[in-house]
Amino acid sequence: QDSSGARVFNLEIQSGKIALKDGRETETWGVNGPFLGPTIRAKRGEEVAFAVHNGLDEGTSIHWHGMHLPSVMDGGPHQEVEPDGVWAPQWTMNQPAATLWYHPHPHGRTGNHVYRGLAGMFIVDDDESAGLNLPSEYGVDDVPMIVQDRKFNGDNQFDDNASFMSMQGILGDEIMVNGTLGPYFDVTTRLVRLRLLNGSVSRLYNFGFSDDRPFSLIATDGGLLPTAWETDRLQLSPGERAEIVVAFEPGETLTLRSNPADEGYEGPLGRFNGGDDLLDICEFRAADTLADTTEIPETMGTAPDLAEAEIAAERSFSLSGFNQINGESMDPMRIDFGVREGTVEVWEVENADGFMHNFHVHDVQYQVLTVDGEEPPPRLRGWKDTVQLNPQTKYRLAMRFADYTDPNLPYMYHCHILVHEDSGMMGQFVVL
Ligand code: C2O
Ligand code: CU
Ligand code: CU
Fold first, then answer.
1. Which residue's C-alpha comes closest to atom 3 of ligand 1?
2. 357 lines ligand 1 (CB under 6 A)
3. Shortest CA distance to 319 belongs to which of 347, 291, 343?
4. pLDDT per position as a tens digit, 396-407
5. How far apart are CA 45 and CA 278, in angstroms?
6. Residue 71 burial class via C-beta count within 10 angstroms: exposed 0-12, middle 13-18, buried 19 and up
7. Which ligand 1 atom sits nearest the alpha carbon of residue 76?
8. 236 CA distance to ligand 3 centroid (A)?
9. In angstroms, what CA-CA distances link 248 with 292, 293, 416?
10. Over the stretch 267-319, which tens digit does the pLDDT of each residue have?
11. In angstroms, how far is CA 91 from the centroid of its own chain?
12. 114 within ligand 1 shell (Cβ under 6 A)
């Protein structure tokens, strides 16, 4: 804590090395360590203050993905930290409990910086969620899982060449969870909550267990669902998060996998973009006796409620050609539009390409109203800040802009497939 009562976090962005393959070192970047960064945790209403020191020899930034906060604290391309510079954002946590994350956002180089290892989780807590009997013991029955893929070259270094015939960039054939290859987890409780983050630069995951057992989706990007939804598959595109609860039997071993998924590609392009891949994510090894003290409550979070709201403006966004939104590429000097604080807008977002995109908006959580005119599938019915866009499909998103205004400093919206974002599939808006 500092004298203002804020909780202070020191973040040191650094380069390093980790021994991943046969004990041979891979060069990496990380926050407060050689690879990835610490889980940050703070409670709604709490004041947080950061000292972010850039120990790299190039500029970078730290963006708080999913966070509702003033644009000057957002950590986008306008808040780059120079080598050896310090950035000191501070704000009051002002949203429901959720699994968020942080990562760099320098103009044109986000994919490179994330791939090298700059990313971490940011867990928001609140009183309502603390009062529930959900699994919530960190690292025991409440487990963060930063899921990423990597390619390695012959020298055991991360290979950042785009994959052959891929429209999405780098698709790795090896999975890392929280920076570990071949990860496993020792299960000691019947119910385990997994906070899944797709921290990959381009890969879509279609999560499911090796025996196809059902599990419960309890939270999407913006927080807990009103009621759990049972499923045996869950797709997450880059940047999306989900919290799931799975039940284990004593003594069993079970693998979380990513299964083939339909990304809407024509012909063999699906295969070149990972659509046929079956990948082991993590092995779960259950003890012979499992503690059984938690449950999934009947009611948890609040449902998005913007379907009936008064709409102040409608806008349309068409993503096309790898690097454009509405025919333009990102220009940090161009602010695309302004929205009014305190109003609700509907954004109609269309993927006009024949390949996958997704759509992320800073500062807000939105409600997916429709997908091509239909009610969205259950996995898209909670609060979202990033949504997968299937080819040739339209999504209507409703969002409220609240609390913070700044006529000069914008927030971003963009595709979170990072090679597309870095190529310019991004725009900027201000809240007035
Ligand atoms: Cu996760 Cu604009 O980023
Ligand atoms: Cu973001
Ligand atoms: Cu894209």
1. 65
2. no
3. 347
4. 999 999 999 999
5. 42
6. buried
7. 2
8. 14
9. 10, 13, 33
10. 888 888 899 999 999 999 999 999 999 999 999 999 999 999 999 999 999 99
11. 21
12. no
**CB of 63 closer than 6 angstroms to any ligand 1 atom:** yes
DSSP state of 303: -
According to DSSP, the β-strands at 47-54 and 40-43 are: unpaired
Q: Would you state the structure tokens that stand for residue 53, as one six-digit string?
A: 């020191």
Distance 211 CA to ligand 2 centre (A): 34
Nearest atom within ligand 1 for CA of residue 426? 2
Whether the pTM exceeds 0.90: the reply is: yes
Tell me the domains of the chain and their CATH numbers. 7-125 (2.60.40.420), 142-291 (2.60.40.420), 311-431 (2.60.40.420)
Please indicate whether residue 195, judged by its CB atom, sits closer than 6 Å to ligand 1: no
> So what's the ipTM on this one?
0.99
Say whether pLDDT at 162 is over 90.
no
What is the distance between the alpha carbons of residues 194 and 304, in angstroms, rounded to a whole number? 23
Ligand 1 closest atom vs CA 101: 1
- The CB of 105 under 6 Å from ligand 1? The reply is yes
Task: With CA atoms as reference, report the closest residue to 406 among 428, 374, 381.
Answer: 428
Band (pLDDT 50/70/90 cuts) for residue 142 is very high
381 touches ligand 1 (CB under 6 Å):
no
Tokens standing for residue 11: 């973040």
Nearest CA to ligand 1 atom 1: 65
SS3 205: strand
Residue 30 CA to residue 390 CA, distance in Å, equals 32
390 CA from centroid of ligand 3 (Å): 10
Q: What is the CA radius of gyration of the chain?
A: 20
Q: Which atom of ligand 1 is nearest to the CA of 413?
A: 2
- Cβ of 201 less than 6 Å from ligand 1: no
Question: Positive or negative, the Cα torsion across 138, 140, 142, 143?
Answer: positive
